[in-house]
Amino acid sequence: MKSVNILFLSVTLLSSVFIGTSCSSLKPYQPTQYQGTQINQEKIDQLEVGFTKSQVIYLIGQPSLTNTLTPNIWQYIYTKKSQEKLNIEQNLILTFDESGLIVSIVD
Question: Model's pTM, two decimal places?
């Protein structure tokens, strides 16, 4: 009877150790998250100094970021986050003059 209790206790202890260690390494599934405006290189290559804001919107869409203090700087930011890694894929910055024409393109 005593050997059965010891055997039962040993099996219970070993199984709890295996279950505890295997579950601690499992992480919940996190799907890849995409944020911002993804712009292909062909569209970026079509941008030219002198384009108007409306031409830019027609070509690549609204900017991801505009600052109220500097409304003539538009940022197109695209990020991809997967399994706890943050990778900034694109950061396109367009600067306009006071008349609304592109004066600088930073890719």
Answer: 0.66
